[in-house]
Every structure is written in C-alpha cells, then in structure tokens.
Amino acid sequence: MPPMPEFVFLNGQIVPAADARVSVFDAGFTHAAGLFETMRAYNGAVMRLPEHIRRLQHSAAELELQLHLDVDEVAEAIMRLMAANSLLDARIRLVATPGNVPRPGQPIVAPASQTVLISASPVQAYPADLYKHGMRVCICPYRQNRLDPLAGHKTLAYLPRLIAIREAAAQQCQEALWFTTENMLAEGSVCNVFIVRDKEILTPPLDTPVLPGTTRNALIELAAANGLTLHERAIDIETLLAASEVFLTGSVLEVMPVTFIEKHEVGNGVPGPMTLEVGRLYRRQVAKECGLG
Known about the structure:
The chain has helices at residues 27-31, 49-62, 71-84, 128-133, 159-170, 214-225, 237-242, 273-290; strands spanning 7-10, 13-16, 35-42, 45-46, 90-97, 115-121, 135-144, 175-180, 185-188, 192-197, 200-203, 230-232, 245-250, 254-261, 264-265. The protein is of the alpha+beta class. Helix 6 crosses helix 8. The longest helix has 18 residues, at 273-290. It is globular. It starts with 6 loop residues before the first strand and ends with a helix.
C-alpha cells in the first residue's frame, strides 16, 4: 500500500505538500526575511500555542516585518492540518514571511501579501538513552552578538545554527552551546540552557540575548510554583564548568540532561536530581495543559 500523501497548510488552504508552491520572489526565499515557530502537539493539542504566536508577533513588530497572524485562525489551521495528516501527536512548524519582495520599479504595497506555511509531521523523538544518560555537548566556536538585530528572534536566517550542529556532530556531540562576544553563555543552537549550582537553577537572562523559549518560560513558572530557586543570571565558562547539573529545554526536546561538555564531566556524569525533578514537573504540566491521561 502506498504511503498516505502529506498535507500542508499554505495561505489559507490545505494542500498536498508535493503541490505546495511559494513565489520565487518571496522575501523568505530571497532574503531569509521571515520567522518560524516549532511547536509540539500532544493528543491533538498544541502546547502553549498562544505563547508561540505572541512571540512571533513580537518579533515581527521588532523587526518591522508585515506579518498579521491571529491565534484562533492559526489554531484552526493546525487542527485541520493534523486531521488531514491523521496525527494527534505531532511536530508543528509554522513559517511566516511578508510575501513577495517588490522588484525594481514596482511600488511597495502595504500591507504586503504575507506567506504562511504550516507543516505537521510525526514527532521524531530524541533517543531514550539521551534522556537516561544525558547528552554530550560542545562549545560552539561562533559567537552571539547583542548588536545583531536578529539575536533573540527565531528567524529564517538559521544557517549558522545548522552549521554549529553539524560541527558538533563531527565531535560526537548532540548540541553546541553558544557564548556571546562578551564570553557569556547564551543558548544552544536549538534550545535554551539551564545549570544547577548550590541547589539553585540558573539560566541566562533574555538580554544576553537569548530566545524567550516557551519551554524556558514554562520552567520558570514551574520553579516558582514548586518552591525551586531559579534566577536569570549571567553565566561565564567557569560557572558553567563548575555546575553540578546542566540541562537543555525546547518544545520538541522538552527537558534534556547534559552529562558531558566535550571531555568535561558534568557533576557525576549522570542526570542530576534537579534535572529529573524539573523534567517530571514539565511532563506533568504538559499532561495538564494538553489533556493527557
């Protein structure tokens, strides 16, 4: 039996992925001018969908991109798309661009005709052994610059992150940790970073700059609600290497322990108690918000 065709949502319509077409003059294609969100659906419900859309809207305003997305309309589109693809648990990716770039001699039309593409695919879960034994990460050779207007936003200009992940894989690492030009810890290539020191959880503040991750935000809320001490604080390399625990967070990643930073063993080389507790709290919150039994 041939595989079922995959469907995507493109500009208001559910269409077969093989038939989806975007203009060659689209700003996302010609200038990487656009934003994206990666979300996770559990049991047919997207975890913190409104927060994802608010983040995209904020970035669009900050970067002066002509994007207009409504939370309810996006939610309806995702539900239709998941039904078309017969999915309840899914990785959702939303891409939004301001549409075609005016060609020489053409007037700039405002508001622009935006492009909105949503895909829904089965979750490619990280190997269970990584959650059990922890990831090995490396220090990224590149730097994050607070003067970069794209820093702290999830834009389509993602090639540097992909290069960092590829180079990490060449070192038998699963992620690369980015530092700033001031030599402060920022984030992973595709995730936020937390450390544990003296029974306190620390994570770099947003003005480092780092992406305001939805899972990061959820953990800050959960820590406050469950009596865990968590601070947003600048972290240098010495503080990172002195940490008793390190973990990463993301919508698909959830809460991932780190047990090695290159050859440096974190703590005792096994996922620590705070990491395990935070992971438990997050899974419980997912079950609560997404109606899992």
